[in-house]
Design brief:
alpha/beta, Rossmann fold, DNA polymerase, domain 1, six-stranded parallel beta sheet
Length: 215
């Protein structure tokens, strides 16, 4: 096993939730602003803490409007969970194999604690992870705090850990924490966007991710 600890992003890395996020954000913003954003523009803010994501996507909104969009987004996202998101194919087996090799697993996500706990319980994934950090508990991505707090909880040095994510926010968070980053090609941002990112491994599929992790 190449690493003692693997810290995963959630949306777009482990879970196929990007469609729900894009639809919910568009519906939430519709009654507040007439400004249109493309699917890719919305995907580009996934990973940020929700209020920060809305400010980045709609910089013209007042803070009051940002909070209204946030509340509406939470409502629409839960409503769309009538058709629950699922793990990408092969992810449960990957988690089992990593744990079998005594690898400590964590999650660093832009989701709220309430949102992450709800979906982890729905997917019966709580037992996989030794600890998780959410953007409403500490500084959000791309700040390194979530990774550093998890490493401290696990008593793992940065050089023995890796962050796996699908966005520049994930990779920058890893780099600021002194941890290697692996960018996956099935999430929010295309692998071509990481071409000029230093010290990042890119993987197109789950088999390549397994090789990068040394399993």
């Amino acid at each position: 096993m190449k690493y003692e600890c693997v810290i995963f992003d959630w949306d777009g890395t482990l879970v196929d939730s990007l469609g729900h996020i894009v639809t919910s954000m568009r519906e939430a913003a519709h009654s507040i602003t007439s400004a249109l954003r493309s699917d890719q523009q919305i995907k580009n803010i996934i990973g940020l803490e929700l209020s920060e994501a809305i400010r980045t996507l709609y910089p013209e909104l007042s803070e009051q409007d940002v909070q209204q969009v946030r509340e509406r987004y939470a409502h629409f996202y839960v409503a769309h969970q009538q058709d629950p998101t699922q793990f990408f194919a092969g992810i449960p087996a990957l988690m089992d194999d990593l744990r079998r090799k005594s690898c400590t697993l964590g999650v660093a996500t832009g989701k709220s604690r309430r949102g992450l706990d709800r979906v982890m319980q729905t997917l019966d994934a709580e037992s996989w992870f030794a600890a998780t950090r959410c953007a409403d508990e500490t500084k959000g991505k791309p700040e390194p705090d979530m990774v550093l707090e998890l490493l401290d909880a696990f008593s793992v040095r940065p050089e023995h850990a890796v962050v796996v994510g699908d966005s520049h926010f994930d990779i920058e968070m890893a780099q600021r924490a002194g941890v290697h980053g692996i960018a996956v090609g099935w999430g929010a941002q295309p692998l071509s966007s990481f071409a000029h990112s230093p010290q990042v491994t890119t993987v197109n599929d789950l088999a390549a991710l397994r090789r990068a992790l040394g399993i």
